Amino acid sequence: MIRMIVKDLRINPLRTGLTALSMFIGIVALIAGVLVGTLGRDYLEAVNARLSGRTPTYSAIIDVTSVAGMQTTMTLQERLAHFEPGSASAQYHLNDLAIWASSGDGGLEIRHVAVTVTDAERTRVMPAPIIEGAWLTAADKPATLETVVNENARQYVHDGTITLARTGNPQQVPARVNGVIVDGADEPVIYVNAAALQRYWPQAWTPDGLTILVHPDAGVDDRHAKTALDDLLADVGAGSVSSWNRSDNADEYEQVIDFLQLGVIVTAMLLLAVSAIGMINIGLAGIEQRSHELLIRRALGATRASIAAQVIGSSVLLSLIIALAAVLISASLVWMVPWMMPADSPLEPPAYPYTAAMIAAGASVATSLIGSLAPAIKAIRLQPALALR
């Protein structure tokens, strides 16, 4: 029977090719739909994480009591680096910190660009791909006065440094630029190492406030994270939490993600339905063309079961071959995606959707089985007496 089924596939190459193409499109479309939906979700989450923190991120505004002290700041940053309920990063507000940059007439002037005084833990809460150099040095490691800039702030970098200044103060201090990141911000942003700033330019260390960003680990309740932060601040003597709010803006894109996933599912179902309809049409047309051959087999003693097995078996075998080919080709394409992604892409290289591939392969076999039932029923209803006409 297997030999007959294989031979059956070779009788009409055009019919077999059209059926194979229909199956291939359905399988690849389902895999691609799931992959696109997954990438769309990952993209929205990655962009949001750059701008407002990983999901979930909480913003804790601190009532500052003694954060101006060097020892307090160093201890606080070291403790935040080992924050057990999750990841935590401090952001100090120094309103008078600015930079010296070229003016329109060729001279130098103070520019009030966004200057964020933070620590090495920030990228664990708000990830930002590093496209050049490295991120800020950890507080417990030696470092010179250092900064990191985003792409829009490259214009202020000269000879690998940026000149920091204070509003209304003629003093200028060069700071080394560690690297360049993609943080998703549309305006220039300069990130300054808080520990290094306090150590090497203490005159500029006049914080007006402190915000701590907290990203709890999976399964950690936000109330537990807040309690842990309160205990940490009390131990360090750096004030207390006066405001605790979620700041990652996840609610704004969750509806978009749900709609995207629903659209992907509906599209995949429609593609499979179109594939099944195409197979039924091709199968019925094939029975019309092969009716004389099937009638002769019936007249020579072939049973209705063998005729049905021949018709259904050829479709199922073809679907298995096409499913394997579609999975291999789609896996090769997914493997090539990381090589085509730009360095500043917010997405991680996508993993191959094995579950979707198995579902697509199973759906292909089920579709071929369903799609071959109508042709098989038509074939077994042929009357052997017609072969004598």
TrEMBL record:
<feature type="transmembrane region" description="Helical">
    <location>
        <begin position="351"/>
        <end position="374"/>
    </location>
</feature>
<feature type="transmembrane region" description="Helical">
    <location>
        <begin position="259"/>
        <end position="287"/>
    </location>
</feature>
<feature type="domain" description="ABC3 transporter permease C-terminal">
    <location>
        <begin position="266"/>
        <end position="384"/>
    </location>
</feature>
<keyword id="KW-1003">Cell membrane</keyword>
<protein>
    <submittedName>
        <fullName>ABC transporter substrate-binding protein</fullName>
    </submittedName>
</protein>
<dbReference type="InterPro" id="IPR050250">
    <property type="entry name" value="Macrolide_Exporter_MacB"/>
</dbReference>
<keyword id="KW-1133">Transmembrane helix</keyword>
<dbReference type="GO" id="GO:0005886">
    <property type="term" value="C:plasma membrane"/>
</dbReference>
<dbReference type="Pfam" id="PF02687">
    <property type="entry name" value="FtsX"/>
</dbReference>
<keyword id="KW-0472">Membrane</keyword>
<dbReference type="InterPro" id="IPR003838">
    <property type="entry name" value="ABC3_permease_C"/>
</dbReference>
<feature type="transmembrane region" description="Helical">
    <location>
        <begin position="21"/>
        <end position="40"/>
    </location>
</feature>
<dbReference type="InterPro" id="IPR025857">
    <property type="entry name" value="MacB_PCD"/>
</dbReference>
<feature type="transmembrane region" description="Helical">
    <location>
        <begin position="307"/>
        <end position="331"/>
    </location>
</feature>
<keyword id="KW-0812">Transmembrane</keyword>
<comment type="similarity">
    <text>Belongs to the ABC-4 integral membrane protein family.</text>
</comment>
<dbReference type="GO" id="GO:0022857">
    <property type="term" value="F:transmembrane transporter activity"/>
</dbReference>
<feature type="domain" description="MacB-like periplasmic core">
    <location>
        <begin position="16"/>
        <end position="231"/>
    </location>
</feature>
<dbReference type="Pfam" id="PF12704">
    <property type="entry name" value="MacB_PCD"/>
</dbReference>
